[in-house]
Amino acid sequence: MIRKCLQHGYFRGEVCPECGEEGRYVLDDDREERLGRFISGALRHFPEDVGLEMDPQGWVDVDVLCDIMKKRYKWGTMERLVSLVESDVKGRYEIDGSFIRARYGHSVDVDLVSDYPENELPYLYYGVSQEEADMLLENGITPIRQCYVHLSTSLEKAMQAASIHTENPVVFEIDAAAAQDDGIDIVVVNEDIVLAKSIPSEYISIADAQE
Question: What domains lie within the chain, and their CATH numbers?
Answer without folding.
Answer: 2-102 (1.10.10.970), 123-210 (3.20.170.30)
